[in-house]
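User: My advisor asked me to double-check a structure prediction for N(6)-L-threonylcarbamoyladenine synthase before group meeting. I don't want to rely on an old file, so could you generate it fresh from this sequence?
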Amino acid sequence: MLLAIDTAGPNCAAALARAGEDGSAEILARREIRVERGHAEHLFPLVEAVLADAAIGYPDLDRIAVTVGPGSFTGVRVGVAAARGLALALGRPACGIGVLEALLFPLRSAGGTAVAALDAKREEVYAAIATQDGLNLPPCLLDYDGLTKRIEEFGAPLILTGSAAPALKTRLAAIGLAAETATAADHADIAAVAGLALAGAGISPPRPLYLRPPDAKPQAGKAIARA
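Assistant: Sure, here is a fresh prediction for N(6)-L-threonylcarbamoyladenine synthase from the sequence you gave:
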């Protein structure tokens, strides 16, 4: 039994899944709420809710999967710490799943070129590109011009997913490239996170994937003394 959790974006989600007969993820229970921030106080109540929904307990879990970013710095830390803590307490393995890879996962059989793009503010995007051959552009931080240039290297049809998809579609149209938008979601689907983990993807143990330094930095001369 796999427990998948996501706190990397504005949603807080948990799901229980197992491999179905056809190899796909069979979701037994899932809970998801929009929180923006404060993931730490919501995560374990959600986990306990899905366990109750499926009528199982923590000892029934075989492994844990968690989104590792890119996304909210605080949210990523909350999820990774929770997954590591559960793995240690239960003696089970944990793996990290990239948010961009999870966005691309439902498009794996769509054909053509799939582009996952999340708004990173400052006219930049977190992006990854996949084709039938697999992941061709690993998760990275680019400005829109840089991303459109990379997309030009790949063939049509183009399928976009993620919160930056509408803006990216407009920019691609301006240079004569047509694209379809699969979704403009600003977070990964927890079912895709579970599906990737059950397919053997992920980094073990989970490690945060930030792609950008944090906005908040200690002021010079303002370091807090350690006890």
